Amino acid sequence: MTALVRNHVHVKGSRQRAMIFAHGFGCDQNMWRLVAPAFEDEFKTVLFDHVGAGHSDLKAYDSVKYASLSGYADDLVEICRELAITEGVFVGHSVSAMIGVLASIKAPEIFESLVLVGPSPRYINDNDYVGGFTADEIDELLETLDDNHMGWSAAMAPAIMGNADRPELGNELASSFCRTDPAIAKAFARVTFTSDNRADLPRITARTLILQCRDDIIASEEVGKFVHEQVAESQLIFLDATGHCPNLSAPAEVIAAIRKFV
Asked: Which listed residue, 60, 72, 86, 149, has the most CB atoms within 10 A of its CB?
């Protein structure tokens, strides 16, 4: 099976240069529906689902391969090579920001630019590094998800989304979480929240833009600043958007920032 089928890849636009969008934990490519179309006249836009998400081929899920973010990065490289993408623009949200970082290190030719939306190289605090969570908090989060996937999704989605005055956004994220296969969601959550990619940041050679939201309980402003400090000549933009999903809550602001960068 080709990566294009396995990852339910959709390509639009006829321009030579590609812009590929990658979704975060518990989501699928539909989360980019308010952003990606804005670039179809300027780029060949590529959307896909990580294996285990959306309309990807669930039979392709391999617990060994996907026990680290490297397995997802391998898929991303494979997609780009099947589409003959070089010097493209990668736009990754949340955990996919680090997946894109790893892919760009594995195959530097595929991405000329990285746009990292709400990135975090490590969620767990470590000495002077503040990731936002203690190890015990992450353990509790994972245990709750393991015990009650639906309840965890209903409780966590509104907090992650923020924007309490727009409850429809939190409801959409909760529905997305609940559609994910529970066993795969638990495994991906463990990989996401226990990964440590801090040492990979200085290895980035692509132009890099970091988009940081305010009042983001998943990736704080302090984490955004850390990523900026570790990636040579990167740009950091603090959006007026709040919460962790500006691709849904503030798409116009995300579009404007990306367009100015590319």
From this structure: 72
Instruction: Supply the residues annotated as catalytic.
Output: 94, 216, 244
Assigned domain for 225 exists: yes
10-12: strand order across its sheet: 10-12, 44-47, 18-22, 88-93, 111-117, 207-214, 235-242
What is the sign, positive or negative, of the torsion defined by CA atoms of 55, 211, 188, 185?
negative
Domain hosting 218: range is 3-123+195-261
Q: Which CATH number fits the domain that encloses residue 246? A: 3.40.50.1820
Give pLDDT tens digits for 49-64. 999 999 999 999 999 9
* Token pair in block for residue 38: 């804005």
Question: How would you label 124-155 residue by residue, b for 16+ Cβ within 10 Å and e otherwise?
Answer: beeeeeebbbeeeebeebbeebeeebeebbbe
Neighbouring CB atoms inside 10 A of 109's CB total: 12
pTM of this structure: 0.96
Say what the pLDDT of residue 6 is.
Answer: 97
Residue 66 lies in a domain: yes
Q: How many domains does the chain have?
A: 1
